[in-house]
Amino acid sequence: MHMHLACRQSWEKNAASIIVGHSNALVLNNGVAAMTALLGLSHELLHCIFAEVDPADLAALALTCQDLHSYIRGNRLLHKDIYVRRYDEPSCNAEQDWEGQMQDLTKLERLLESENKQTKLDSLGFVAEQINRLLETAHCKTELSSNLPLLIEHFHDTTNVDAFLCSSTLFDRAGNENQQPADTEELRQASAKLHCLFGVPINVVPNRLTYAYQRPDLSLSPSSCTRLQMRPLPTHTYARSKVYDLRQYTLHTLWGPFTDDGTQRVDWEKVEAVMVVLGFNLNKFTERSDGRWP
């Protein structure tokens, strides 16, 4: 271990001295000499340097010249080292496609950082798949995980919450103008699952414009608007109607939150409704008892 560390430090020192030594050539020869010096390094030194590159920049680096493209593309060890520096290393023993996974997660982060609402909505399926994989491979101890803080940071953004967690059937009636159900059953199920994994029920009070849009024939007085804003959060109302609808529980659904096709697949929209109702009841219990059990 000590020998490996010493060798690595020596490689990094040599790489730094070579690059610094050619700084003047970089200015005089439009970068040709510096590029030549870089490409002249051993693969071990190149690995130490490129392992520090941000995943989003690695693809651009591979496009700078044919030699770097040949070195980076298909370099399994390099992609693995960059991956585990930013994300939790999967604990399974199966062979991993480090390059493909890193490219997928780089795309995921760009989508989560995007300000384009439609781009987010169009990518719901991909985002759900990648978030599920990040959660599956996350370290079992939260304080040691890299995946969980990354997701927590991105879902402080309400646009991500609206686009990815509020696209189930529940938000067809309970959602606001930024929360609408996805076009397909598969995507609605994926969104409901993400909402459940998020673990905190999302409650929405529709503003007057949304309410008027849903009921264009209804004219509201100022006092009615005030009372409307003081009503209980509607997400719970619609979730409760789904949970307590006895028609949802049949032999085909195994009398539980499963799809009615007999496959025993989880119906995430039902689980989502149960979560919302439980969250509402727990909040009511806390308000009435100050969180203390009799």
From TrEMBL:
Record-annotated F-box domain positions: 35-81
Superkingdom of origin: Eukaryota
InterPro entries: F-box-like_dom_sf, F-box_dom
SUPFAM superfamilies membership: F-box domain (SSF81383)
A Pfam family: F-box
UniProt name for this protein: F-box domain-containing protein
